[in-house]
Structures are given as structure tokens and as C-alpha cells.
């Protein structure tokens, strides 16, 4: 993959500029000199007032209007002087200057109002404290686990520390106190053994212990539930949906096939709370969606991220669809890191689930193949055009759990839930079988007599029984 040194590209550009650093120009911290990367002027191109945000005590700092005299040059690059009404706190702020001439990666910069303040930080290593004075370490019997072994360990300790105490009668106060401590230690030892037994699934005796063990691996034990899983499909061109009820097989530990069906189970189908199919597209198959970064310094997607860029446009991402973000481990001996995220829905706040954009700084060869299209339309047409990218956003509850190396990351769609089991149908008539019935009838039995009054029993009602053909 070609290197993307965006700073060098902006330095060599004659159409784009970017923020280099911010200098606090006075002791009152109200004058900021913003130094830019090159000499490309953009006076009059600002689409809004510069903003300073990100503080803790003072969230935002207002920037005064920019005058024509605030623009200048310094050693071959543009310098802009900004003035604020009052300085910010000790937080790290972000200065953003909206202008189409500023590259999207360099239209903002982090800085601190307190960069010039004196610091009392001392880099000299701390002198370790003096070691404690040496003393006789009493012998410790780590195999003592019951009353008698604790009693003998305390007798050995008393003989070492109190050699003048020779009394060993059970009526002696010291011996009585020693045995009371041994009994308490015996109780604590039993409690430790119980806790150790509850610490593993093989030896646990309490249901709540087993439930807590299962929760450690994000599994909530519930009675009589089917296994569920999220499956990734590769579909052929022209396939638009993955319908409910598609049977898939998984081998069991004994080699027998375990049947799953796509969908969230029979209960949700009967309630009508799940769609009958999941959208699918051959463009979402494994290996078709690659991540994109605007600079080589952005190759790491941090934990907690809820958006990212992918290369190309025309993927036709759908609101609320699932995407798999898979990152290969640095070593082939380790498993890949996988997480499924769900794109924002049409009614979610915070913006669209996907937006198509262009990277005008880095150009790519124009090809006729697509979708996805890897370049944006350029006028006039040329052999090289701006790189096409798509920004995708997912739900806040699906934020990434770990950092991702984008050079080892791929994305895939066509994700559908599946539930263990197979849906079957069985029909029967709720009455005794009759001549000419095409469906089996129920077996009628006499039920329990109801109690209509104290000491009075009513007529027993009939009970209809039927055995399902598929157990």
C-alpha cells in the first residue's frame, strides 16, 4: 500500500494549506499566533468563525473577529493572529478553522493555553525509602489447614518468641486463647476452601456461582433457550436479501450436525417484531470493503470509535445494517479481533449512517470498474482523480472495544442472526378423530374435578392431548 505522508503532501501543495502549530504570544494568554504549513493564502475563504473547544472547566473560548491586519507571513508560511476575550483552563483545547483551502486533516490542532507557564515537574527519580530493619522472621507452616495444625504452628511460634512460657495446660489462659485462635483459623480455612471450590465451574456447588462464571464471558444463563449466533454470508451478484429460515449446519463435538436457521427465532416471528429478511449485497462480501486513512499517523483506530472511513463509494450501505470489523493479529498464532457493529438507523440522532466524500489531496487512477468506484468525478476528466471515500457511523453502544491497526483490518457485511433449531409445522383437530378427517385429532381424557365451593366438587372437564410428530 502506498505511503500517505499528508504533511509532506500539504507542504508541497500549491492549492491546500494546513495548521502547523499554535503559539501563545502574550503572558495574558489572550493572543494566539497560528502558524500554517506553507504560503498558500486563504484570506476571505473562511466559511465560519474559528472555534476553540474541548475544555473541562471552560468548555469553549470565544474568538474575537479577525481583522485584515491579523494575516501575515513568517519564514515562508502564513501566520494568523487570533485574539480571545479570556484564556482557557489547563485542558487541551482544539482550534478549528473552517476553510475549503485547509486540508481536512490539518484544519484543526490541539494546543494548551498554559504551554508557557512555569512547571514544577521534576524528572529526577524519587529516592527509594530506607529498607525496614531486619528482624527474625517466624517460621510459617503453609500446610496448616485445620485446628490441630494451626494449634501446633502457634505452639512453635510461642516457643520461639516467648521461651520463658512453658505452660501447656488446657486450663491456662494462654493455651485457651491459643486454641480459640486455632478454632477461628479453622473456620476461616474452611471458608477459603469453599470460596476456592466456587471459583471454578467443575467444583462449584452454588447456582449463583455458576451464573456469575457465565457472566464473565458475557453469557447470561437462562433455562431452555436455543443457541444464537451472528453469521457472515458471501452472496452472489444480484442477491438482495438473506431471508429468514435459511438452514445452516454446524458440526457438534460428536460429529453430528447441529441445525441453525437464520432469524431471531420462532417467538419473534410470531410476535412480528423482526424483519423477514436481512439486506444483502455482493459489494459487502469479505475482502471487498477496505478501511481508509487520510495520513499514515491515523493507521490506528482507537477504542471507543463510532465512525471510520472506507475506500470507495457506491456501496449502498443500508440504515441499521450490521458490519463486521475484523483485524488480523500481529502473529498468525493469535486469533483475529472481531466485532460486529450496527450502522445508525434513519431515526437515530447524530447524523447519517453513511456519507460519500472525496480526498482531494491524494489522487488515484481513474478506472471504469465499479461499483465500488475508487475515484470521484473530476472536471475536466483526467487520468488521475480525487480518491473516493465513504464515512460510516454506527451506534454508540457498539463503540470499538479495542484499538485497531487499519493496515490489518477488513470489513464485511451480509451479517444475519441465526438461531439453533429447525422450524416445523404440525396440524391437528381439537376434538376426537372423526371419519373423513385429513388431520389427526386430539386424545380426550378426563381432567381434574374443579372445586366449586368448600367441600363441593364440580364436573370434571375434558382434557385434549396431542403428541407432536417432531419432538
SSE diagram, text form:
Blueprint: H1 6-11, E1 19-24, E2 31-36, E3 51-53, E4 60-61, E5 71-74, E6 77-83, E7 93-96, E8 108-111, H2 147-161, H3 173-198, H4 207-216, E9 228-232, E10 241-243, E11 247-251, E12 257-262, H5 266-271, E13 277-279, E14 291-292, E15 300-301, E16 307-311, E17 322-327, E18 337-342, E19 354-365, E20 384-393, E21 404-405, E22 409-412, E23 415-420, E24 443-446, E25 451-453, E26 456-457, E27 462-465
Antiparallel strand pairs: 1-2, 2-6, 3-4, 3-7, 5-6, 7-8, 9-23, 10-13, 11-12, 12-23, 14-16, 15-21, 16-20, 17-18, 17-22, 19-20, 24-27, 25-26
Structure in words:
With 471 residues, the chain is α+β, with helices and mostly antiparallel strands. 13% of the residues lie in helices and 27% in strands. The chain contains five helices and 27 strands. It has helices spanning 6-11, 147-161, 173-198, 207-216, 266-271; strands at 19-24, 31-36, 51-53, 60-61, 71-74, 77-83, 93-96, 108-111, 228-232, 241-243, 247-251, 257-262, 277-279, 291-292, 300-301, 307-311, 322-327, 337-342, 354-365, 384-393, 404-405, 409-412, 415-420, 443-446, 451-453, 456-457, 462-465. Strands 1-2-6-5 form a four-stranded antiparallel sheet, with no helix packed on it. A four-stranded antiparallel sheet has the order 4-3-7-8, with no helix packed on it. It has a four-stranded antiparallel sheet with strand order 9-23-12-11, with no helix packed on it. β11 and β12 form a beta hairpin. α2 crosses α3 (173-198). The longest helix has 26 residues, at 173-198. It is flat, with a radius of gyration of 36 Å. The model has no long low-confidence stretch (mean pLDDT 88).
Amino acid at each position: 500500500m502506498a505511503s500517505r505522508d499528508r504533511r509532506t503532501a500539504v507542504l508541497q501543495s500549491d492549492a491546500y494549506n494546513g495548521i502547523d502549530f499554535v503559539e501563545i504570544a502574550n503572558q495574558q494568554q489572550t493572543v494566539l499566533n497560528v502558524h500554517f504549513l506553507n504560503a498558500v493564502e486563504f484570506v476571505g475563504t473562511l466559511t465560519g468563525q474559528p472555534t476553540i473547544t474541548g475544555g473541562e472547566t471552560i468548555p469553549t473560548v470565544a474568538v474575537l473577529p479577525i481583522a485584515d491586519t491579523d494575516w501575515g507571513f513568517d519564514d515562508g508560511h502564513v501566520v494568523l493572529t487570533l485574539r480571545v476575550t479570556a484564556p482557557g483552563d489547563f485542558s487541551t483545547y482544539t482550534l478549528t478553522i473552517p476553510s475549503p483551502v485547509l486540508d481536512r486533516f490539518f484544519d484543526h490542532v490541539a494546543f494548551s493555553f498554559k504551554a508557557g507557564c512555569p512547571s514544577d515537574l521534576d524528572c529526577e527519580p524519587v529516592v527509594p525509602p530506607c529498607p525496614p530493619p531486619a528482624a527474625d522472621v517466624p517460621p510459617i507452616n503453609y500446610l496448616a489447614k485445620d485446628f490441630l495444625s494451626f494449634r501446633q504452628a502457634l505452639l512453635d511460634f510461642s516457643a520461639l518468641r516467648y521461651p520463658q512460657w512453658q505452660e501447656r495446660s488446657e486450663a491456662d489462659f494462654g493455651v485457651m486463647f491459643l486454641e480459640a485462635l486455632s478454632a477461628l483459623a479453622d473456620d476461616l480455612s474452611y471458608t477459603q476452601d469453599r470460596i476456592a471450590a466456587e471459583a471454578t465451574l467443575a467444583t462449584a456447588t452454588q447456582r449463583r456461582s455458576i451464573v456469575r462464571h457465565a457472566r464473565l464471558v458475557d453469557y447470561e444463563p437462562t433455562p431452555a433457550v436455543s443457541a444464537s449466533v451472528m453469521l457472515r454470508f458471501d452472496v452472489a451478484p444480484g442477491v438482495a436479501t438473506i431471508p429468514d429460515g435459511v438452514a445452516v449446519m454446524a458440526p457438534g463435538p460428536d460429529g453430528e450436525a447441529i441445525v441453525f436457521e437464520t432469524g431471531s427465532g420462532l417467538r419473534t416471528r410470531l410476535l412480528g417484531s423482526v424483519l423477514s429478511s436481512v439486506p444483502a449485497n455482493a459489494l459487502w462480501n469479505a475482502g471487498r470493503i477496505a478501511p481508509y486513512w487520510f495520513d499514515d499517523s491515523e493507521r490506528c483506530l482507537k477504542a471507543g470509535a463510532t465512525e471510520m472511513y472506507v475506500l470507495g463509494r457506491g456501496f449502498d450501505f443500508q440504515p441499521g445494517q450490521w458490519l463486521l470489523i475484523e483485524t488480523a493479529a500481529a502473529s498468525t498464532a493469535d486469533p483475529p479481533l472481531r466485532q460486529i457493529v450496527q450502522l445508525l438507523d434513519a431515526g437515530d440522532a447524530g447524523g447519517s449512517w453513511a456519507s460519500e466524500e472525496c480526498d482531494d489531496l491524494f489522487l488515484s487512477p481513474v478506472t471504469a470498474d465499479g461499483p465500488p468506484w475508487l475515484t470521484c468525478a473530476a472536471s475536466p476528466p483526467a487520468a488521475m482523480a480525487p480518491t473516493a471515500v465513504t464515512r460510516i457511523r454506527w451506534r454508540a453502544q457498539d463503540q470499538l472495544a479495542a484499538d485497531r491497526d487499519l493496515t490489518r483490518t477488513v470489513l464485511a457485511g451480509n451479517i444475519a442472526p441465526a438461531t439453533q433449531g429447525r422450524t416445523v409445522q404440525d396440524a391437528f383437530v381439537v376434538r376426537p378423530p372423526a371419519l373423513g378427517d385429513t388431520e389427526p385429532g386430539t386424545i380426550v381424557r378426563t381432567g381434574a374435578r374443579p372445586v366449586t365451593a368448600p367441600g363441593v366438587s364440580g364436573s370434571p372437564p375434558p382434557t385434549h392431548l396431542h403428541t407432536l410428530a417432531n419432538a
